[in-house]
Structure formats: structure tokens, C-alpha cells
Specification:
Structural class: alpha/beta
Number of domains: 2
CATH class of the largest domain: Alpha Beta
Order of helices and strands: HEHEHHHHEHEHHEHEHEHHEH
Radius of gyration: 21 Å
Strand content: 5-15%
Mean pLDDT: 90
Largest sheet: 4 strands, parallel
Strand order of the largest sheet: 2-1-3-4
Distance between the termini: 30 Å
CATH topology of the largest domain: Rossmann fold
Shape: globular
Number of strands: 8
CATH architecture of the largest domain: 3-Layer(aba) Sandwich
């Protein structure tokens, strides 16, 4: 870990535990430079090499939109970062497979922001590439709020002018940007999926991630809007964690009156869940379960991050965050 990052973390702990606003000043940090803005793309991450392209596609779109603004990547999953840390023991093996260095050596959000601070960036937009505001985005916001709350005795020693967070793909709670509009924008990017299902005469089934700690009702809303936008195709959404699971809507599939199913991940990457839980050969995978019911299942192992129109949603959300907080992106 870089010396500056260690200084930041230690100082933050002191500031919180002792209530001393001047703790960071004693760490020897220079005043924050005014007006230097950076973007941090906070992805859940993936350990599947072929799935990394969905993440890099999003970063490519963001860098193309803001070519003169520093853009860095972090993974919010502790487990996924630990896997990549172990892989650093054989760096060339992964670099030869086309894995970018920023993925192989990915850091957590605190280290990433700490590195930016040491490089003179005082205004930071953290853009989660999560689907909706669930556990990962909630925890990410706590980190951001904690760092943004640091106050020093002298204003000139404050490490940051502002650290703000953009909203996930399907939005987040609050009335500044109604999540219904974000859902509409996301649904509009899925026209290609609906058309592929229509041409195949298939029911379109998406597997989302979901979670066990938050309501997953957002998927029902997306399903309703998909059917309204593309009425010629019957679309279903399910999740790996939470509701609705495959068993919750399996019996409804017969109403679609099609023996074909186009099965896709409703996730940023086609990672472990997509390759195993969705399309794997195991008896309990979605593909195997649907095949046992007599359906002809076509799986598509491509994350939504590879969909250029969907990736653009994050570019737009970064722009909104910058505008709302008076930050300049170049």
C-alpha cells in the first residue's frame, strides 16, 4: 500500500475516533489542489477473464466521453479483489490473456481514493456500475460519506473539496432523479434482446443477481416495463438471491406458449453466476432446470456492460452527478 494511502486511512481513523478535525493536517498532507476532478468507476467486479470486457467497455465509454478527466477503477467485492490479489503472483499469465493492469492490481475504494488524493485530485465522482441501489451501493455510499465528512481545523488542510456518488443503472432512492425514469432508459437499451427473442420465437428470460438483504421488487418493475415496451415478446425476470427465484415463475412460463427460451444475464458482467448458475451443466442451473421442463434453451453469455447503449447510462449518470455538484468534466 502506498505511503499516502496509509496516511489517509490512519488519519481518518483518528479523526473519527478522537473527533479531531486536524488529524489529517498532522499527517503531513499538502493542501488539496482546487478544481482537479477525477472519476472512480466502482464495479462489483468479476474473476472470470472473459467477463472483464464488459467492465472495460464501460470504462472505455467513460474515458471517451471525458478524455481529459482522470478515470480509475475499483471493485467493491472483497472476495473478487482477494482473487485478483492472489493472481498478482503470476502477473504475466493474466496480462497475456488481455487482463488490464488496472484489473489485475485493482484496489479497494479507500485505497483508490487515497491514491487520487496523493496525485492532487480534490474533487471525485464515484460512479457505481451496479444495477440498482442494493447492498453494494449502500456500503459504497457509507465509505464515500465517511471520507467526504472529514473536516480539519484549517480549511486548507481538508483532503477533499467534494466526493460524490452517481446513481446505479436502475437508479436509487430519492426524488432528485426518479428511478422510474432510469428504468425506462435502461429498458430502451434492451431492444436488441427483445428483437432477438422475437425472431427466434422465444420467451426472453433474464437472470439478475438480487440480494438477501433488500427488496428485489425492482425486477418486477423492469419486467412490467419490458412487456409494455416490447409487447410482441414475453419477458420474465428472476434472481439468484432473493425473489423471484426461478421456481417462483417456472410455472408461469407455459403461458408464453413457446417451447424456446432465450436466457441472458441481467448483470453487468457474464461472470460466475452467468457461467455456472445460469448456463452451467449442473442439474440445478437455470438452463438445466428449464431443459428438464422441455424447453429449448439458448443461453447468451454476455453482460450488459458489453451493450454500448447500456454502458452509456453510466456516462449520463456521471454527467448528472457533476452538474448537480458544480464539478467540471473535460
Amino acid at each position: 500500500m502506498k505511503r499516502g494511502v496509509t496516511t489517509l486511512i490512519v488519519s481518518l481513523v483518528l479523526a473519527i475516533s478522537l473527533g479531531l478535525g486536524s488529524a489529517l493536517a498532522s499527517g503531513g498532507m499538502s493542501p488539496a489542489k482546487q478544481g482537479k476532478t477525477a472519476i472512480v468507476l466502482a464495479s462489483f467486479g468479476t474473476t472470470v477473464p472473459s467477463a472483464v470486457k464488459a467492465i472495460t467497455n464501460i470504462s472505455d465509454k467513460v474515458r471517451a466521453a471525458y478524455p481529459d478527466t482522470e478515470v480509475r477503477l475499483t471493485f467493491t467485492s472483497n472476495i473478487i479483489r482477494s482473487v485478483w490479489k492472489k493472481r498478482q503472483a503470476e502477473p504475466q499469465k493474466w496480462l497475456d490473456q488481455g487482463i488490464p493492469k488496472e484489473v489485475l492490481y485493482v484496489e479497494n475504494i479507500i485505497a483508490t481514493i487515497g491514491d487520487l488524493r496523493e496525485d492532487g485530485y480534490s474533487d471525485i465522482i464515484v460512479q457505481p456500475t451496479h444495477m440498482f441501489f442494493m447492498e453494494q451501493s449502500h456500503d459504497l455510499m457509507q465509505y464515500i460519506n465517511g471520507l467526504a465528512s472529514i473536516r480539519t481545523m484549517k480549511d486548507k488542510w481538508r483532503p477533499f473539496n467534494s466526493i460524490v456518488m452517481g446513481r446505479p443503472a436502475l437508479g436509487m432512492p430519492g426524488d432528485r432523479y426518479e428511478y422510474h425514469h432510469d428504468v425506462d432508459a435502461a429498458v430502451a437499451t434492451l431492444a436488441g434482446d427483445a428483437e432477438a427473442a422475437r425472431k427466434a420465437g422465444a420467451t426472453l428470460v433474464y437472470m439478475g443477481h438480487g440480494n438477501e438483504h433488500w427488496s428485489t421488487g425492482i425486477y418486477a418493475e423492469v419486467q412490467k416495463k419490458m412487456r409494455a415496451a416490447y409487447p410482441e415478446v414475453t419477458t420474465y425476470f428472476g434472481v439468484v438471491e432473493g425473489m423471484p427465484a426461478l421456481d417462483d415463475f417456472m410455472g408461469h412460463l407455459k403461458h408464453a406458449k413457446s417451447e424456446k427460451i432465450l436466457l441472458k444475464p441481467f448483470m453487468i458482467v457474464a461472470g460466475d453466476h452467468a457461467t455456472n448458475d445460469m448456463a452451467g451443466p449442473e442439474d440445478d442451473s437455470w438452463k438445466s432446470s428449464l431443459t428438464k421442463e422441455g424447453y429449448q434453451v439458448e443461453t447468451v453469455l454476455e453482460g450488459l456492460g458489453s451493450n454500448d447503449a447500456f454502458a452509456q447510462l453510466f456516462v449520463d449518470h456521471i454527467r448528472d452527478a457533476a452538474k448537480d455538484h458544480g464539478l467540471v468534466l473535460k
